Amino acid sequence: MPVVEKPNGLIYCVYYNGKKRKWEAYGRGPKAREAAETRDLEIRLKKRRGAFSPASSGITYQTLFELYTSAKQTAFSPHTWDGILRAVSIYAKPIRAVPINRIGMEHWYKIQEAMIARRVKNRTINTYYKYISWPITWAVTEAGLLDQNPWRKRKNLKEEKFGIKLFSLHDFLRIMWHSPPHLAWAMELAYYTGARPGPAELFSLTWDRLDPDRSAILINCAKSRKGASRPTRWQYVPPNFMARLLRYQAETLRDYPLCRYICHYDGQPIKSLKTAWKHAKQRAGIATPIRLYDIRHYHITYALAGGADIRDLAERVGHTTPEMIVNVYSHLAKDILQNQPHALPSLTQTPSIHPPTVDETVDENKKAVSKDGLTT
After folding, report:
1. What is the radius of gyration, based on Cα positions, of the chain?
2. How far apart are CA 130 and CA 123, in angstroms?
3. What are phi and psi of 54, to 5 degrees?
4. What is the DSSP string of 81-121?
5. Which residue of 45, 102, 137, 355 is surrounded by the most CB atoms within 10 Å?
6. For the domain that residue 225 is a member of, what is the CATH number?
7. Apex 282 CA angle, 278 and 284, nearest 5
8. Do the bridges between strand 232-236 and strand 268-269 make them parallel or antiparallel, or are there none, so unpaired?
9. Is residue 45 in some structural domain?
């Protein structure tokens, strides 16, 4: 069976490399079958001449990527797939039509130069390298289409330390004041929940995720540990904000009875707030580089400065490990707490315990006189 078509339509050229059976995938349709049959003839001829090598697959990177996405479609979260598709669609152009057995380091340098020309940061370049190279790695380790990864000696670029600059509450309120209602509401929701402002978390919140009795919201996790079965987390909000959520829910369902989403625009789910955020900043006269995502940083930093447990905080905001809280936010919280008094219980909040008056003190001293006439 040199050429095989699977029930899902994928066509393979099957051959033996020694005692091990190899399956080379060629996609779907008549062209894929033709390519597989051509590959079969090529193998037969090379075996006859004694010059056969299983690494001589001539499928292009584009075909390889299609096979990879078909095989790994359930392996990643939607957020990761968005990153993979973005990296490949924008930056993998130099290798799309290149046979994978002819891809070399020179191709990666072209891809990297294009990223640098667009001022992509080193951290992002390293991430996009992973996304673009994963299909090639899969061709070596699982599909048997290549003997070795041509980019295996590539080294990560040096990354800048992750730095965060917190905005002031004054600037936040100024932007909020100049925002349209749907943006102002999204800012407030992000402020109290620390949810990532995007489709995966903040924009996906629905009314059925509210638990008023616990004053909590169930939030999807854009990032989760490998193999995690329940990528959700509970976040607890102040009771007065939960009451505000319930009032907003009543108003929303009155005007838009079919609206499921807590963040919406005229009853429709929100996909992006970048344009509205940019215009609100301009109207507020703020030129500093404040991002919508910085609301999440503000939430985490002040929660940590307020004494939140690191592990509990990491779980509530959806970090896979507490290390991110320690490495990134601890110094910010420390800066906030410098030159501040230590938190002690307020005497004004304990009215049942009050210092004795002068008269009460005299009376107590009289009662404390012993039979010998000495005070105790």
Report:
1. 31
2. 11
3. -65, -15
4. HHHHHHHHHHH-GGGTTSBGGG--HHHHHHHHHHHHHTT--
5. 137
6. 1.10.443.10
7. 115
8. unpaired
9. no
Q: Is residue 371 included in any domain, yes or no?
A: no
pLDDT value at 141 more than 80: yes
DSSP three-state, residue 234 = strand
Q: Is residue 193 a part of any domain in this protein?
A: yes
CA–CA distance, 159 with 150 (Å, rounded to integer): 23
**Percentage of the chain lying above the pLDDT 70 cut:** 82
pLDDT tens figures, 67-96: 888 888 888 888 788 899 999 999 999 999
d(CA 24, CA 228): 32
Amino acid at 198: G
Cα–Cα distance, 26 to 18 (Å, whole number):
22
Amino acid at 89: S
d(CA 322, CA 302): 16
Separation between Cα atoms, residue 65 and residue 70, nearest integer Å: 9
- Domain of 216, in residue numbers: 169-337
Number of domains making up the chain: 1
224 inside domain: yes
Question: Angle at the Cα of 291 (from 285 to 296), degrees rounded to 5?
Answer: 130
Work out the average pLDDT over 84-112.
Answer: 93
pLDDT (tens digit, 9 = 90+) per residue, 269-307? 999 999 999 999 999 999 888 889 999 999 999 898 888
How would you list the strands of the sheet with 216-220, edge to edge? 210-211, 216-220, 232-236
Length of the chain as a residue count: 376
Sequence-ordered list of residues with C-beta below 8 angstroms from that of 250, at least 6 positions apart, any chain: none
**pLDDT recorded at residue 347:** 58
